[in-house]
Write a structure and sequence with these properties.
heterodimer, A: about 160 residues, alpha+beta, Ubiquitin-like (UB roll), DNA polymerase, domain 1, 2 domains, five-stranded mixed beta sheet, 6 helices, 5 strands, about 35% helix, globular, B: about 260 residues, Uridine Diphospho-n-acetylenolpyruvylglucosamine Reductase, domain 2, Uridine Diphospho-n-acetylenolpyruvylglucosamine Reductase, domain 3, Enolase-like, domain 1, 3 domains, five-stranded antiparallel beta sheet, 14 strands, about 25% strand
């Protein structure tokens, strides 16, 4: 099937099989390999992207379902975003495999919760698994990013 | 971990969708339960009927007679954000926050959670406590089911392969009704071990349990005791009798007690 969609502001058109997962389309056909594929059944959160501004698991969508929609992936966030800088400064990653999913989940979270409590942050992180860090550095990074106004950056 | 090939259909109207359903077809709405099953190849339907473009099913609104109407394509995130639901059916607002994670609720639908019929799902339990009606359509006609008529076992409902759960109807709560939802999961958003939904109002007492069996269950003896003025711990003990496993029974007693106290405060 022919699909056309926008990824990070750029138009992409491609032929896909209906069974192609959106996560595989993003990586293999659009060539955007920042999005990682972990469990492929919606548990780990590594493949999280934003679909029309809302965080979603790209492994739980078919690429054909993104036809006509707008996607945002980690490549659009860049390394100077307050969240990305805070992750760097607080050692909120080790191997980094989960990081793109965390950042794609947290950016819209901070838009809706510009001044989150620690328990709100921990609840927001529950849908993303990190096996390296133990989450403490991640929580601290989100707190710093909130203080620096990460919410306003992209709103 | 990739779906097997299937024929893909993306109808734009309910009638068109119904005509595509049948023995070898599966409805794709939010996909948060179906797509994992496709990825694992536990489900290998010949045809996927994607209803995401059926705009007429994407609604949450108050209907005639003051009931709540939830269309088949209403997302869990829309339920969570609905001011109407928060004001008049707060049990649903309370329960939906326990469903998966924001990344799941942004896509997952209320009706999809119902038809998937996972015995640890929150929304079927809340809807059971609220005496919801489930309006089902097929190209041959329509019928309307109660929760007890719909849920028949774990991951199993009485829907036929050519039927679509088109709408969920929730009757209005009596004035002054208070609701509470409690559950225990090891991590927020994980599958819950036990949970309880409680509605308390003049002349209306409902207690529905999550994790007491293979389907959402009304704790009728506990409801009668609560309506009759029994102490909270007696109500909780009656509800916990419905759970076989000792650990889960203890959890259930604590969760029912919490929910009853919250709904009575």
């Amino acid at each position: 099937m022919r699909i056309e969609l926008e990824i990070n502001g750029e138009r992409h058109a491609a032929d896909v099989e209906p069974r192609t997962l959106l996560s595989d389309f993003i990586r293999h056909q659009a060539g955007l390999t920042g999005t990682k594929v972990g469990c492929e059944h919606g548990v780990c959160g590594a493949c999280t992207v934003q679909l029309d501004g809302e965080p979603a698991r790209s492994c739980l969508m078919l690429a054909v379902q993104a036809n006509g929609r707008s996607l945002r992936t980690i490549e659009a966030l860049g390394t100077e975003h307050p969240l990305a800088r805070a992750f760097h400064e607080h050692h909120a990653l080790q191997c980094g495999f989960c990081t793109a999913g965390f950042l794609m989940s947290l950016e819209p979270f901070l838009r809706e919760h510009p001044d989150p409590s620690e328990s709100e942050i921990r609840e927001a992180l529950a849908g993303n698994l990190c096996r390296c860090t133990g989450y403490q550095g991640i929580v601290e990074a989100v707190e710093q990013a909130a203080r620096e106004g990460a919410a306003g950056d992209q709103a | 971990m990739k779906p097997a090939p299937f024929e893909y259909a993306a109808p734009e109207s309910v009638d068109e969708a119904l005509a595509l359903l049948g023995e070898e077809a599966k409805v794709l709405a939010g996909g948060q339960s179906l797509v994992p099953l496709l990825n694992f190849r536990l489900a290998r339907p010949e045809r996927i009927v994607d209803i995401n473009r059926v705009e007429e099913l994407a609604y949450i609104r108050a209907g005639d007679g003051g009931s709540l109407r939830i269309g088949a394509l209403a997302r869990q995130a829309a339920l969570e954000r609905s001011q109407l639901v928060a004001e008049r059916w707060p049990l649903l607002s309370q329960a939906v926050r326990f469903v998966g994670h924001p990344q799941i609720r942004s896509r997952g639908t209320v009706a999809g959670s119902v038809t998937h019929a996972d015995p640890t799902a929150e929304l079927p339990v809340a809807l059971t406590a609220l005496d919801a009606r489930f309006h089902v359509r097929s190209s041959g006609g329509a019928r309307s089911l109660s929760a007890a008529e719909l849920f028949s076992g774990p991951l199993t409902t009485t829907l036929a392969a050519d039927e679509l759960l088109a709408e969920i109807e929730v009757p209005p709560l009596p004035a002054g009704a208070r609701c509470a939802f409690s559950e225990h999961a090891r991590t927020h958003g994980d599958f819950a071990l036990a949970g309880a939904a409680v509605v308390r109002a003049e002349g209306d007492t409902a207690i529905a349990l999550l994790g007491a069996g293979w389907t959402p269950l009304r704790a009728t003896a506990a409801e009668r005791a609560l309506a009759g003025g029994a102490a909270t711990h007696e109500v909780a003990a009656l509800a916990a009798e419905l759970v076989d496993d000792e650990h889960r029974a203890a959890l259930m007693a604590a969760l029912v007690k919490d929910a009853v106290e919250e709904a009575s405060a």
